[in-house]
């Protein structure tokens, strides 16, 4: 029998907000799916399209970027830069045949532990619906 | 000392790179006198594949490979040249990154054949005859054609020692590259032969070089929309110029002619995937996120010359 497929989700989280939100979710015992693998970055503005592409190329089934709400960026405008890059990358990736739902960005603050757990649960469900990343097992 | 031996091959390219070498004009004569051209197919010298195949391994000093690898014949000659040449150079952006002709990877071979041989307006092919890889003529002569494959950059097929960007490489840059080759002053193997500066760094329109800050673009324009200023940065004015991420060995030829850089020089040092870095650079230069949606056809813009060497290399087909 083939092993049942479990999604692998990469969450790139800003250390000032979404990463804290994940921490809070943990302390408050809000659960979220074990398919989530968090990578901490100094700012969502640090997330280069290369990071998302590399995760997908290496077989991540979904990539989620978490940053601070507008006006809350520790470095003032990192998140504005993040959304412009993210939207442009998503357009290109979609044109190259990647389902847009595999790539998400959301603003989740350090006090939104509940929202973090909800967002992860929704993302996991969405990716299960989509199935495995078509690049999985492809060129490494 | 005997003259260094040179081989030149045009694979999935347009011949423009060959012309760029010829464009060296007098400089070419000097260079040619110092070289022994043992193979230049299919454009210049009348040397056959079997002659090349018969040469001893490693007997050619430098091989220049132009065009991408698009069919079984290109792939075969790429492998033969790798064996015969001490130094193999991806010459021009087709060989280095797949080139403009690498955009074929957005389509299937079936789609492309149908378009070229059946659906184009000027085609008259009522029997819908498509090219075949083998055909028997008069019941006894078997003729063959190479098999089409997804376009690849040369280094996706064989190891490449050096890369030279440009579509085609700029002739003054070729002259410098030949000089470096002949004098043995080459960078470490695996590098691009480049002066290492971005197009912006050699562009007369660059406000930073005039001590002024670079402003964000507040609109997105196509080249057909209006006209750029005489000496302002095209990107500031909304023309999506890829100068920030492109090697400027051409000396910023396009911006100096009012045309935004399209990236033919190849990625600036340290960048593996040209399009991804271009996305990052252009997104950072836009004033607001609404402008992102106004960019027409981003894949063709950002991967115009580099799709085969990109993170996916092609469009996922379902
Ligand atoms: S790089 Fe440009 S000029 Fe050279 S073969 Fe390719 S398309 Fe032609
Ligand atoms: S973006 Fe283009 S026009 Fe502006 S300085 Fe760079 S190369 Fe020149
Ligand atoms: S400006 Fe850009 S597109 Fe034009 S020749 Fe130079 S590198 Fe190529």
Automatic annotation (TrEMBL), chain A:
Q: Does the keyword Metal-binding apply?
A: yes
Q: Does the keyword Iron apply?
A: yes
Alphabetically, the GO molecular function entries are:
iron-sulfur cluster binding; metal ion binding; oxidoreductase activity
Question: Keywords, A to Z?
Answer: Iron, Iron-sulfur, Metal-binding, Oxidoreductase
Signal peptide residues are none
> Pfam families annotated for this entry?
FlpD (PF02662)
Q: Where is the F420-non-reducing hydrogenase iron-sulfur subunit D domain positioned along the sequence?
A: 10-131
Name of the protein in question: Hydrogenase iron-sulfur subunit
Gene source species: Thermodesulfovibrio autotrophicus
UniProtKB/TrEMBL annotation, chain B:
Molecular function GO terms recorded? iron-sulfur cluster binding; oxidoreductase activity
Which parts of the sequence belong to the NADH:ubiquinone oxidoreductase-like 20kDa subunit domain? 14-181
The source's superkingdom equals: Bacteria
- InterPro entries referenced in this protein's UniProt entry, alphabetically: Hydrogenase_assoc-protein, NADH_UbQ_OxRdtase-like_20kDa, NiFe_Hase_small_N_sf
Keyword annotations for this protein? Oxidoreductase
Which PANTHER family does its entry note?
Answer: COENZYME F420-REDUCING HYDROGENASE, GAMMA SUBUNIT, F420-NON-REDUCING HYDROGENASE VHU SUBUNIT G
Q: What is this protein called?
A: F420-nonreducing hydrogenase
Q: Which organism is it from?
A: Thermodesulfovibrio autotrophicus
């Amino acid at each position: 029998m083939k092993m049942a497929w479990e999604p692998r989700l990469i969450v790139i989280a800003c250390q000032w907000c979404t990463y804290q939100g994940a921490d809070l979710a943990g302390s408050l015992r809000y659960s979220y799916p074990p398919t989530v693998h968090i990578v901490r970055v100094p700012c969502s503005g640090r997330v280069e399209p290369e990071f998302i592409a590399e995760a997908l190329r290496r077989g991540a089934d979904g990539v989620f970027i978490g940053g601070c709400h507008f006006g809350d960026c520790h470095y003032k405008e990192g998140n504005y830069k993040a959304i412009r890059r993210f939207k442009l990358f998503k357009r290109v990736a979609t044109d190259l045949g990647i389902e847009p739902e595999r790539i998400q960005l959301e603003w989740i603050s350090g006090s939104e532990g509940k929202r973090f757990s909800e967002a992860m649960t929704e993302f996991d469900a969405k990716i299960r619906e989509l199935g495995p990343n078509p690049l999985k097992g492809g060129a490494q | 000392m005997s003259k260094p031996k040179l081989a030149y091959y045009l694979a999935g390219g347009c011949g423009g790179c060959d012309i760029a070498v010829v464009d060296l004009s007098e400089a070419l004569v000097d260079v040619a006198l110092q070289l022994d051209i043992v193979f230049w197919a299919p454009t210049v010298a009348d040397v056959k594949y079997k002659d090349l195949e018969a040469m001893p391994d490693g007997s050619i000093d430098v091989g220049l490979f132009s065009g991408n690898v698009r069919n079984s014949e290109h792939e075969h000659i790429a492998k033969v040249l790798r064996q015969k040449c001490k130094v193999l150079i991806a010459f021009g952006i087709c060989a280095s990154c797949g080139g403009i002709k690498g955009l074929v990877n957005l389509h299937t071979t079936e789609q492309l054949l149908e378009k070229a041989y059946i659906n184009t307006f000027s085609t008259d092919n009522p029997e819908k005859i498509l090219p075949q890889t083998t055909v028997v003529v008069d019941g006894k002569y078997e003729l063959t054609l190479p098999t089409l494959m997804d376009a690849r950059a040369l280094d996706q097929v064989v190891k490449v020692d050096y890369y030279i960007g440009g579509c085609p490489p700029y002739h003054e840059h070729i002259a410098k590259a030949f000089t470096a080759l002949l004098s043995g002053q080459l960078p470490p193997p695996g590098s691009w032969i480049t002066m290492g500066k971005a197009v912006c760094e050699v562009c007369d329109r660059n406000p930073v070089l005039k001590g002024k800050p670079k402003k964000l673009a507040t609109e997105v324009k196509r080249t057909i929309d209006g006209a750029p200023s005489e000496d302002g940065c095209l990107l500031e004015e909304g023309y999506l110029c890829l100068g920030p991420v492109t090697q400027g060995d051409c000396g910023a030829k396009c911006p100096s002619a009012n045309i935004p850089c399209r990236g033919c020089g190849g990625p600036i040092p340290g960048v593996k995937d040209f399009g991804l870095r271009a996305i990052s650079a252009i997104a950072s230069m836009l004033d607001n996120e609404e402008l992102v949606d106004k960019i027409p056809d981003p894949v063709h813009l950002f991967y115009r010359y580099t799709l085969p060497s990109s993170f996916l290399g092609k469009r996922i087909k379902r």
